[in-house]
Amino acid sequence: MSDGPRAAPQRFFPQSTRHLLGVQGMHPTRIEPFLDLAESYALMNRSRKTPRDRLRGRTVINLFFEDSTRTRTSFELAGKRLGADVINMTVASSSVNKGETLLDTATTLNAMRTDLLVVRHAQSGAPALLAQKVDASVVNAGDGTHEHPTQALLDALTIRRHFGGLHGLTVAICGDVSHSRVARSNIHLLTAMGARVRVVGPPTLIPGAIGALGVDVHYTMEEGLRDVDVVMMLRMQRERMTGGQVPSAREYFRFYGLDRRRLAVARPGALVMHPGPMNRGVEIDSRVADSDQSVIREQVEMGVAVRMAVLDLLSRAGEPT
User: Fold this and answer.
1) 70 labelled as ligand-binding?
2) Where residue 109 sits, what CATH number does that domain have?
3) Domain named Aspartate/ornithine carbamoyltransferase carbamoyl-P binding: which ranges (predicted)?
């Protein structure tokens, strides 16, 4: 019976790091096994020969306190392609909606002997709190404005597949940086892997202390996109904004939307990325989103592969070498 792709060396995944709560502070030697295994799974997914026995007998619960399509569905596909029993729980159909606390939910899930718990929550730190209270390995599927580690991993894998590596590349992360957990995780991961990162956006949507993370800050697209290898657009998150941060969608696109004219100042063949869902005509022009330079659909494909790798490797965290 196939064991699936070869496991990463156990020293990278000791019991104390059996969760994936964020990428801040992660060393490249821990990041690379996720990317390497995900690359294997990407190839296997295309061949439709995934190892459906890898997580046989394991239970994965997707616990989503926020709406999601791509992330939840890709985690569900990842678990099922590895042979796990996958249960999707949403707030609307859970006891949380009846007033149950997060810690009571943790106690309940612990009693169910769950193996892997995938959590999305509107409050930063919620997955980390659950990780302290459950025996399962916990994966952060996005918490507040804090982190979204699997999105950063799938973005890194997408970039690596086109350039062969991340070291020395220049990546511009553009738009609503203040409210973006995707931006934070990508900054941590890309800088750790030797890429140069720029953040680009209006002053109202760029955190004042962002430069401390080792990024260059630009307030115009024309300046920020000059000679970059990758342009990563962000969704404008109106649901997290206070009044007055952006005058209107039309004005936002006028100054910070990605169109062909602005993309032309990047390096020839620069990749165009977006974590989705896209607001066409607000963050990005359709002609750019659907162009040959766009890898947005590939990001979705790599999302399944990365989440398979994450579930696989975390499930091995407590196994002997």
Assistant:
1) yes
2) 3.40.50.1370
3) 18-160
